Amino acid sequence: MNRAALPLALSALLLTSAALAASVADVKKKGVLVLGTDPTFQPFEYKDASGNIVGFEIDIARAVAADLGVKLQISAVGFGALMPQAVTSKRVDMAISAITITPERAKVVGFSAPYYRSAQVFIVKGGNPKKFAWPASVKGKIIGVQANTTGQYAGNDALKPKGAVLKVYDDFAAGLADVQSGRVDALIGDAPTVISLKKRLPGQFDQAGTALVAEDYGMVFTKGSDLAAAANKTLARLKSSGEYQKLLDKWIVQK
């Protein structure tokens, strides 16, 4: 989702290790690629029933690590601490967490080539898609957004001027709970999230209206790191071999 963070304090609980390397040579030397991700965004990254962090983006990161000949070490980092602080401080070698590529962020961090195009959409309670319309009428509606995401930025730019009231959440799951309870009229999230929700929780959630904004996701590295080029090679290999499509079919394509 493009969940991009504004400057926030790093989480001492989740980020306790010393600064880590952020180049191909150093990653290979230590034998580990340290990935930072916020595992709350199914199907891109989330914790399964056993507590393992899995998802579409996690499989892409595993492929990058495999091509480098190293192990993947996953650090669960709240999104507010992940981008860009965890990356620029070199506490993680790489971040992947539905992070939208923007010119502003590219001034601070390095991005891989885009690997997924998404869209910010309105998530509503199941059975209620016709009760919420965008852009026809959002005046007086309470719209949930996750803090420091493009959903929040788009809400500020496009919805508040039309009279919508934004409710900001640190935790996306809390926003979904408020959609279910009716405390908010809609929650802004990524289109694949709606697909995943409808598969996992039939009848509980729907998409309403048209897309608010489109966005491209990229893997994130320290500015100038050659890890970005290595990640691009992996993306090219996955796409040419057909493995990328298999990952889409596994995690995102609705069946």
Automatic annotation (TrEMBL):
InterPro entries: Iontro_rcpt_C, SBP_3_CS, Solute-binding_3/MltF_N. GO terms for molecular function: ligand-gated monoatomic ion channel activity. Residues 32-255 form the Solute-binding protein family 3/N-terminal domain. It is found in: Cell envelope. GO terms for cellular component: cell envelope; membrane. Residues 1-21 form the signal peptide. Keywords: Signal. It holds the Pfam family SBP_bac_3. The keyword Signal applies. Coiled coil: none annotated. The keyword Glycoprotein does not apply. Belongs to the bacterial solute-binding protein 3 family. PANTHER family: ARGININE-BINDING EXTRACELLULAR PROTEIN ARTP (PTHR35936:SF17), MEMBRANE-BOUND LYTIC MUREIN TRANSGLYCOSYLASE F (PTHR35936). This is Amino acid ABC transporter substrate-binding protein.
